[in-house]
């Protein structure tokens, strides 16, 4: 860091490399600081913590932990990298039990912009520790995460796949009801629509998880009753589930990601989720001439209980209240030729998330939805989105004060990319 600053050299930091925003984990004509060699995974039984290097992917972490019957709160797909995931907050299949992944950090070790190495925890450099939980790479380069460990045995999970569109209303109703009636914190789900625009294939892919060998009757019944085309859910190890979810990772494609947040619509307003879906579908279809394009829309439940657990563990920058249930949308476009089609895909992504926000704003304005706090989830944010502007003002001010204290020259704001403060 000292050398980079002395030479005013732009650089990028790459851990697992999952963040697809251009130049967030890549660079042209500058050094790329790869943490791939920082791949330690060490369980300490006495403290019940796991020391995890940022260069790991979550499937590598669980390959070590599964035989020990312990786990950490991490990614839902094995191929996802550790570093950016934790700094962005981290949504997990275990989040309704234990909160965001960042809520389960016991400490971090990081290098500040001036080259100083520090440890941050609840008792040491506590202001930095609080700021990194959803603060991204604004405060330094993390070289190790010490994470709280939890017991785990065999779990149940897999994918339900529905080809076509005829189950759309039933699936939208199902994810709405699941989010409101989240009675079992051991259950987790992602409801995803995939649109292969280049050949007009359309399908729903559901990622199901239960922290136990078999889910109780009623947990996933509304989805199973819709008669999926395929169902590979079974009892297995946690690591096996995450690795099997890698089947849906699109290797070799240019990838973009965006997000929006909505309060959960009431049960008697199915038209609201349908309007969100229809906007996404229409906007995505407008890019059908982009070679090899695949559009994806994921519904990710954020029940009140998750917010309650997160605050009980010390909180994070998102600082969700438990006044309302929420759904976070993950919006993805993948395609083949960046030079040829990036402008079209960029415009399509902006229209997708901007249109969703306009719909939510309209429903709030006419009283159809509550006027709730709606932050953006950093892990899913597009580079043009204003992550910091959607947080509570006092949260942003606190983070800015920490940034000014540890990086007064603004090195992490000017020499590297990310969601800058």
Name the shape in a single word: globular
Percent of residues in helices: 25-40%
| CATH top level class name of the largest domain | Alpha Beta
What is the residue-mean pLDDT, rounded to a whole number?
97
Find the count of extended strands (DSSP E, 2+ residues). 17
CATH level-two architecture of the largest domain? 3-Layer(aba) Sandwich
- The separation of the N and C termini measures 20 Å
Low-confidence stretches: none
Radius of gyration: 21 Å
The figure for the number of domains is: 2
What can be said about the biggest beta sheet?
A: 8 strands, antiparallel
GO molecular function, one term: oxidoreductase activity
Family: Belongs to the oxygen-dependent FAD-linked oxidoreductase family.
Pfam family, one: FAD_binding_4
Protein name: FAD-binding PCMH-type domain-containing protein
Task: Explain what you see.
The protein contains 13 helices and 17 strands. The strands form 4 sheets. Strands 10, 11, 12, 13, 14, 15, 16 and 17 form an 8-stranded antiparallel β-sheet that branches. It has a 5-stranded antiparallel β-sheet with strand order 3-4-8-6-7, covered by helices on one side. With 421 residues, the protein is of the alpha+beta class. Helix 5 (126-132) crosses helix 12. 30% of the residues lie in helices and 24% in strands. It folds into 2 domains: 2-152 and 387-414, Uridine Diphospho-n-acetylenolpyruvylglucosamine Reductase, domain 3 (2-Layer Sandwich), CATH 3.30.465; 155-380, Vanillyl-alcohol Oxidase, Chain A, domain 3, CATH 3.40.462.20. The chain has helices spanning 2-6, 58-65, 82-87, 95-98, 126-132, 168-180, 221-224, 238-244, 270-285, 304-312, 338-365, 393-406, 411-414, and strands at residues 12-14, 32-34, 41-44, 49-52, 70-71, 105-111, 117-121, 141-148, 150-151, 155-163, 187-196, 201-210, 230-231, 234-236, 254-263, 294-302, 326-335. It is globular.
């Amino acid at each position: 860091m000292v050398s980079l600053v002395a030479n005013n050299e732009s650089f990028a930091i790459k851990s697992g490399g999952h963040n697809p925003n251009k130049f967030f984990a890549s660079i042209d004509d500058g050094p790329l600081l790869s943490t791939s060699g920082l791949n330690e995974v060490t369980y300490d039984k006495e403290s019940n913590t796991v020391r995890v290097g940022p260069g790991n992917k979550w499937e590598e972490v669980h390959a070590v932990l599964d035989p020990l019957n312990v786990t950490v709160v991490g990614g839902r797909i094995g191929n996802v990298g550790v570093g950016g995931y934790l700094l962005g907050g981290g949504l997990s299949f275990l989040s309704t039990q234990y909160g965001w992944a960042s809520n389960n950090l016991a400490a971090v070790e990081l290098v500040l912009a001036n080259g100083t190495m520090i440890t941050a925890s609840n008792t040491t450099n506590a202001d930095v520790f609080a700021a990194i939980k959803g603060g991204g790479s604004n405060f330094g380069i993390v070289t190790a995460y010490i994470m709280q460990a939890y017991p785990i045995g065999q779990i149940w999970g897999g994918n339900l796949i529905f080809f076509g569109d005829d189950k759309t209303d039933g699936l939208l109703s199902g994810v709405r009801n699941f989010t409101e009636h989240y009675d079992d914190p051991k259950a987790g789900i992602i409801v995803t629509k995939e649109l292969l625009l280049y050949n007009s294939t359309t399908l729903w892919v559901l990622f199901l998880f239960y922290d136990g060998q078999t889910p109780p009757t009623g947990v996933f019944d509304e989805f199973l009753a819709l008669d999926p085309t395929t169902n590979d859910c079974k009892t297995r190890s946690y690591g096996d589930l995450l690795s099997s979810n890698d089947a849906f990772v699109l290797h070799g494609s240019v990838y973009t990601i965006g997000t929006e947040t909505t309060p959960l619509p009431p049960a008697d307003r199915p038209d609201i989720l349908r309007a969100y879906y229809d906007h996404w579908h229409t906007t995505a279809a407008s890019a059908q001439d982009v070679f090899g394009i695949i559009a994806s829309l994921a519904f990710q439940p954020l029940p009140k209980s998750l917010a309650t657990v997160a605050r009980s563990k010390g909180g994070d920058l998102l600082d969700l209240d438990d006044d309302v249930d929420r759904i976070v949308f993950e919006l993805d476009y993948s395609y083949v030729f960046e030079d040829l089609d990036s402008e079209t895909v960029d415009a399509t992504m902006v229209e997708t998330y901007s249109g969703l926000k306009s719909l939510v704003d309209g429903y709030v304005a006419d009283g159809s939805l509550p006027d709730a706090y709606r932050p953006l989830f950093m892990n899913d944010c597009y580079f043009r989105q204003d992550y910091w502007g959607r947080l509570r003002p006092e949260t942003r001010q606190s983070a800015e004060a920490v940034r000014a204290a540890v990086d007064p020259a603004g090195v992490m704001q000017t020499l590297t990319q990310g969601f800058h403060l």
